[in-house]
Design a protein that fits this description.
By secondary structure, this protein is an all-alpha fold. It has two helices and no strands.
């Protein structure tokens, strides 16, 4: 199953706003993980 078909199935089953919210939360979580890693390395280098 291609990604496009999968997305269309999700949108038809759950609705467009719900799919967009989950997509944005996933992206936001990955960026937060990166920021946390960078902050931890910064604090280690400062001590």
């Amino acid at each position: 199953m291609s990604d496009t078909t999968f997305l269309i199935d999700l949108i038809s089953n759950f609705g467009f706003p719900v799919v967009i919210v989950f997509y944005l939360l996933n992206r936001f979580e990955r960026r937060l993980d990166t920021i946390i890693d960078l902050l931890q390395s910064l604090t280690k280098s400062l001590t």
